[in-house]
Design goal:
Layout lengths: L6 E2 L1 H9 L4 E5 L3 H4 L8 E2 L17 E5 L4 H12 L3 E5 L2 H4 L7
Parallel strand pairs: 1-5, 2-3, 2-4, 4-5
């Protein structure tokens, strides 16, 4: 499997969220990290929990994976892509996210 992962820029995701979002957003950060805020509509599944949560992720959706900087979400994309999912990695993660955060 290739190390290539498709990426989505924060600006593209923010624009998508202004309308009816086509993406399901999964935040793979740890509990204490998401306590500081998440992207509106995101679902929290910590990275190490993803293999145990696959039954909660229908394969007919497109997922945007999010973490602090983009590295863990990149790894989540690699794993999910191998399982037959369609994923995008949020480039730069929450460090580059400028949109509204929910607390």
């Amino acid at each position: 499997m290739s190390e290539e992962v498709n990426e989505l820029l924060p600006e593209e995701l923010e624009k998508d969220l202004e309308g009816e979002s086509q993406y399901s957003i999964i935040d793979v950060r740890e509990d204490e990290e998401v306590a500081t805020g998440m992207i509106p509509g995101a679902k929290h599944i910590a990275l190490q929990s993803i293999p145990d949560q696959l039954d909660q992720l229908p394969k007919d959706k497109e997922y945007v994976m999010v973490c602090r900087s983009g590295r863990r979400s990149h790894n989540a994309c690699l794993f999910l892509n191998e399982q037959g999912y369609n994923t995008l990695n949020l480039k730069g993660g929450m460090l580059d996210w400028t949109g509204e955060k929910v607390f």
